[in-house]
Amino acid sequence: MRTIKSFVRRTGRKTSGQHSAINQLWSEYGVNFSKKKLNFYSLYRNNFPIHLEIGFGNGEALIASAESNTDKNYLGIEVYDSGIGSCLIKAKKKQINNIKICSGDARDVLEVQIADKSLERINIYFPDPWPKKRHHKRRLIQKDFLRLCASKLKKTGQLHIATDWNNYAEHIIEIIEKNTDFIVSKHLKHNGKIKLERPTTKFEKKGLKKGHFIWDWVLTKIS
Questions:
Q1: What is the pLDDT of residues 142-172, one digit of tens each?
Q2: Is position 215 within any domain?
Q3: Is 81 a catalytic residue?
Q4: What is the CATH number of the domain that holds 65?
Q5: Is residue 109 situated within a structural domain?
């Protein structure tokens, strides 16, 4: 039984708007957890490629991606209700119809609900860095998690990762070097002023204000 989680559930306060959004909009955008594999055609009513974002925060990047790429479908996973509520509010306001949201542990959703070789791309933007050494085992980016992601990606599918924590970047580099499922198609260290294949996120903006550098990786699944 897996006991180490890459997150801690906090009883953070939801605004009344976020609470109402979850109650009123979950039936439209939400995907309940079950032991059955998701049927993406039934979910989206089309056969567009599926992009998965793990830990979408307030949904800013997820919404921007979906709005800019209407020929793709987006599935977001988040554990915090406040973020889910914020994302739902944004999706409804912009009338986004190519987004669905899961609430829960990304590893559980991947293992149980996502069929093998069904995703075109997985995005992990600024995951919790767990900076204290005793907590490094909680970091999401681990060798076994990369293998799990690879199993869910189609042939030559991509995994995009970004962080603003130097120590986590070193950890990610070490994990990538040991992996046998991906090749590194792109690896950048930058100050946020270059054009990327992703939107800017709230956590990225906070990191840049603190003077952090940003690390981005694009990993391509080995056929």
A1: 999 999 999 999 999 999 999 999 999 999 9
A2: yes
A3: no
A4: 3.40.50.150
A5: yes
